[in-house]
Predict the 3D structure of the following.
Amino acid sequence: MKSDKNKGKVIYWLQPKELLNFVYVHSRSFVSDFSKQMSAKDRENQIYREHIYIEKDELLEILKTTNKHTEFSPSGIGVELGSGCAAISVELTNLYPEVEKIFAIEIVPEIVKYAAVPLIYMNMVEEKVKPVVGNFDDMKLENESVDFIIEFDSLHHSFNLDKTIRESARILKPGARLLAIDRSHWSTSRKRRDELENTVYSEEFLIARGLHKTTHLTRAENGEHEYLLSEYLDAFKKAGFSRTDWIFLIDPKFSVIKQSLISAVPSRIRKNTKYYYIQTWPLRKLIFPIIMMRMFNLIKVGRYINFPRDIKSKRFQAKTVIIATK
Ligand SMILES: C[S@@+](CC[C@H](N)C(=O)[O-])C[C@H]1O[C@@H](n2cnc3c(N)ncnc32)[C@H](O)[C@@H]1O
C-alpha cells in the first residue's frame, strides 16, 4: 500500500502488514483505485455503489427513519463499527451537528484508503470523522469514553457476536446507546443458516474481487454470518446492556408475502433458482402488519415500520433495527 497521500489522515490501530495474513481482510480488500480523474460527485456515487449499494438519498432516509422511531439522537463522541466507506459517519455528522467526533472503524486498510478517506474529505467533515484501521473487537478507546455507537450491516460480519458487543459495552458510557441497522433471521433453522454460511463463492465472484479462481472461500469466511434476531438480543443482554429494543423496517409490498411463501419451500428444491438465497420470512408474523399498512396507509404497526422503496432500489425489502442502552 502506498501510504504517503494518506499520511496523517488515517488512525492506525492495526498496521496493514499485521493484516496481510487474514483471509477475511484480503477477501474484502479489492476496491477501486480512484486516483484517475473523476468529478467529486461521480466519485461519491461510485463509492456508494461499491460499498453500500444504495444511493445517498436512500441512506439519509434510512438514518432519519431509524433515528425517529428509536429516538437515537447522537451527540458527543461516537464510534461507527465496520464503517466501510464511512458514509454513515459522514451523513450522521451532517444530520447531527451535536456530534463532535466519530471514529469510523474499518478493518480493511484499502477500504479506508480508497473509499473512507476520499468520502470524508470530499464532504469536508475531516475535523469530525476520524477514519481508523482497526478491529471492532479490540478498540483502542478507554472504558466508558464514548457517547454513542452506530453500525450499518457490520455486526453480522462479527465472527464472535458476544465479543464484539462486549467490547462495545466496554467503551460506552453508562446510559449511552448503540444503534444497529442490520439483517437478522427470525426463525430460520440452524441447518438452513449453515447451508447459507457454508456456500462457497463462484469463480466469477472470486475473480471479480482479485482472488485466485481456485480460492476456497465460504460466505461465513467472508463475514456473511446469518445471525438470529434472538442471538443479537441475547448478546446485548449478556454484555450488560440494561435495555434492548428492536423495530423492523419493511416495504409492505405483496411481493414480501410471495417471498415468504416461497421461503417455506425446502431450499433444496429452490437450489438452482433465483429464490435460493431469499430470507425465510414467517408469513404469520408479516401478514397482519402488511395488510394493515396497505389498507390504512399506516406508518407503524407495533414494531413494524412502513418503509417503501423505489422499484429500482437495490435496497433490502426489510431491515432489523436494534437500539440498545447500556
Ligand atoms: C457490509 S460492510 C458495511 C460497511 C458500512 N457499514 C456500509 O454500510 O457501507 C461490513 C464492513 O465491516 C467491516 N468489518 C468486518 N469485520 C470487522 C472488524 N472486526 N473490525 C472492523 N471492521 C470490520 C468489513 O470489512 C466491511 O467493510
User: Anything to note?
Assistant: The longest strand covers residues 172-182. The radius of gyration is 20 Å. Strands lie at 11-12, 76-81, 99-106, 129-133, 146-152, 172-182, 243-250, 300-301, 304-306, 318-325.
